[in-house]
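debug: dumping io for the single-chain case to check the tokenizer round-trip. Nothing else runs in this session.
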Amino acid sequence: MADYVTTINVPIEPRLEPHQVIFRPLVTEKGTHRSSRYNAYAFEVNRLADKDDVRRAVESLFDVKVIRVNVQNRKGKPRRTRFRQGKTKPWKKAIVTLDSEHRINFF
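debug: decoded output
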């Protein structure tokens, strides 16, 4: 019996740079409470980014230690202006929990 390894041709996507992963921080009342109580911060991130990309981007941009990353895919909401129906774009939200020694100041 021949011992050999088969390889699967999987296209390798280019890795996103940290400034391409994080679009903006989400500063809301709920997010402010979450940051003060649980040391967790919310960001709008690129829809192509995964948890490892978000972790790498936050650690390099803000110089902090990330413990956990949770992501949510948000649907676009239906909107109407006068006689036209429309929809907002879908987006991805990441909630990043930091180590207790680290903080991010947005203000």
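debug: round-trip ok. The longest strand covers residues 66-74.
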